[in-house]
Specification:
By secondary structure, the chain is mainly alpha-helical.
Length: 231
């Protein structure tokens, strides 16, 4: 009786059915989803794979796309030139942090960097980059971009080093920060760095005042803080 019941329950496993077989423990073996590089009757082009939306952050092994797919693959963002490598990795061809910018230093990218900085960075680092953001009231210490270690010139961190911090974040400690590789594209990260450099340029050491035009040096010397607003 057990043998007959088992055969009746399982049936002939070589039979073809028009409907999916009933499973006692499906364990998500069969899912209603599109698989990569398969066809689709839903989309007009018949592909299950969809084009990447503009502005999407590149993830996964795309930086190694020539080894993954084909050596003759060519795309500007995955080029072998120095700037393309720096754009995606923050490194030079020898593996050292890139110095300078692999993107155009222009008003458009500076504005882009300001927008992203205001959205993601100012809450901790402050609007001016001095580390006095709103989170400081909760004893969360953020780095000031005017510290010697982060100054524009040596021994400051090169631009590629800042890119690494934006990409991977800083774990632990009072100045730990989140990684932004899932929120900022490589170009946007470089734009933020460009804006940080612009912020750093807004402060002039007293020793360098003599190198500025006299009218500008006098204006900076005579600057006074605005009076605080009393409630």
């Amino acid at each position: 009786m057990l043998l007959a019941a088992s055969i009746s329950f399982l049936g002939n496993r070589s039979d073809n059915f028009t409907r999916p077989a009933w499973q006692v423990f499906p364990d998500m073996d069969d899912q209603d989803k599109y698989l990569p590089q398969r066809t689709s009757s839903f989309f007009d082009d018949g592909r299950a794979d969809r084009p990447v939306p503009n502005g999407a952050v590149h993830r996964g092994n795309e930086l190694d796309i020539k080894n993954v797919f084909a050596s003759q693959f060519s795309a500007e963002q995955f080029g072998d030139d120095t700037k393309s490598i720096a754009l995606n990795t923050g490194l030079k061809t020898d593996g050292d942090p890139y110095e300078g910018f692999p993107i155009d230093v222009n008003e458009e990218n500076l504005t882009l960097g300001q927008d992203k900085y205001t959205l993601y960075c100012a809450v901790c680092h402050g609007v001016s980059g001095d580390g006095n953001g709103p989170t400081k009231a909760f004893n969360l210490v953020a780095a000031s971009f005017f510290d010697t270690a982060r100054a524009y010139s040596a021994p400051g961190k090169p631009e590629g080093g800042i890119f690494k911090v934006l990409t991977e974040g800083v774990g632990g400690g009072a100045t730990g920060m989140a990684a932004f590789n899932d929120r900022l594209s490589p170009k946007e990260r470089w734009a933020v760095i460009l804006y940080i450099r612009a912020l750093q340029k807004t402060r002039v050491p007293a020793a360098n005042l003599s190198s500025l035009p006299s009218d500008l040096a006098n204006t900076l010397t005579n600057l006074k803080p605005e009076p605080s607003i009393q409630n």
